[in-house]
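User: Here's a structure from my thesis project, written as structure tokens. My advisor, Dr. K., wants to see whether a designed sequence matches the one we expressed. Can you design one independently, without my sequence as a hint?
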């Protein structure tokens, strides 16, 4: 294959495998359209509204200044007030990662033979792929925030709550959420906009905790028959398939913030909205080559591209708690 040849996404090929024969290149083209197009299910992405976000017009990073508390004391009559307190300052910097892309090439001949439109569905799925990547990195950053030290001198770092039965014992998991809420309260983390993100297995495990569902313990908070549960200890319960659970040993090329770590024991992460932040230079966008453009003429087909340029990083470690099954 020449250096600049396009491989393409061949619409008529089964499982992206072909020996180049006409039979394999055209295996999926039908004489009559047989019904609905089956596509991958969309991911449910949750992190967009659970943390801070800032858009910049130019530059490679954004600065988030941080200050610590002042103290108070009684005044002695006649004593001078000299403003003698030294307030701790620091900063967090979030960098823009390299442009993340998802691209598909459709050969003109395949599109002419095909009997249904694939461009809109391809664009949708490419956008979903980038959305999943965003959610995944944001959740990794949230766990890393819980492991980080204080941003300013005298401040608070993140926290870890662990129990070897955390992933399988509903009572232990529920108790961990109350411990996380207590941890937040003791660090003066605001009570609003708190969430705990769990995998589906742990989300449905919590439905076995009667105290979280029984109206005798408060307002209707869940529905066992409907498979819904809302809060624990005033923390919103959110389920996601993107909670990290493996050892990511090193950074991926193009990442300019830290997302990697050993998440093998991570079960969930509790966080306030201030725990992490995302800086956007270029929001999610999709595009395709013009049908009369040079690219189309050169390769006889259409290139679809989805892309964004952003980065996610730690802001306030005290606003994150890792819930773990570690020993």
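Assistant: Designed independently from the structure alone:
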């Amino acid at each position: 294959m020449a250096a600049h040849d396009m491989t393409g996404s061949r619409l008529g090929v089964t499982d992206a495998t072909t020996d180049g024969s006409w039979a394999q290149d055209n295996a999926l083209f039908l004489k009559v359209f047989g019904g609905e197009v089956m596509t991958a299910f969309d991911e449910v992405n949750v992190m967009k509204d659970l943390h801070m976000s800032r858009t910049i017009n130019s530059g490679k990073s954004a600065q988030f200044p941080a200050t610590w508390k002042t103290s108070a004391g009684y005044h002695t009559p006649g004593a001078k007030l000299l403003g003698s307190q030294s307030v701790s300052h620091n900063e967090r910097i979030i960098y823009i990662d390299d442009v993340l892309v998802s691209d598909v090439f459709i050969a003109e001949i395949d599109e002419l033979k095909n009997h249904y439109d694939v461009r809109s569905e391809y664009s949708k799925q490419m956008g979903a792929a980038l959305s999943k990547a965003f959610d995944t990195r944001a959740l990794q950053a949230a766990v890393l925030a819980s492991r980080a030290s204080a941003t300013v001198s005298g401040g608070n770092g993140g926290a870890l709550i662990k129990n070897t039965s955390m992933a399988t014992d509903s009572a232990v998991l529920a108790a961990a959420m109350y411990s996380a809420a207590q941890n937040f309260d003791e660090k003066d983390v605001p009570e609003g906009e708190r969430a705990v993100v769990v995998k589906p297995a742990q989300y449905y495990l919590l439905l076995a905790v009667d105290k979280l569902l029984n109206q005798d313990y408060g307002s209707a908070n869940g529905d066992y028959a409907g498979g819904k549960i809302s809060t624990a200890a005033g923390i919103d319960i959110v389920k996601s398939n993107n909670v990290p659970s493996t050892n990511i040993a090193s950074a991926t090329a193009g990442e300019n913030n830290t997302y990697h770590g050993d998440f093998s024991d991570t079960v969930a992460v509790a966080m306030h909205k201030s725990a992490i932040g995302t800086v956007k230079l270029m929001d999610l966008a999709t595009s395709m080559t013009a049908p009369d453009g040079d690219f189309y003429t050169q390769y006889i087909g259409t290139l679809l591209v989805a892309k964004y340029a952003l980065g996610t990083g730690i802001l306030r470690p005290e606003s994150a708690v890792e819930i773990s099954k570690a020993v």
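When you compare it with your expressed construct, this may help: The longest strand covers residues 301-314.
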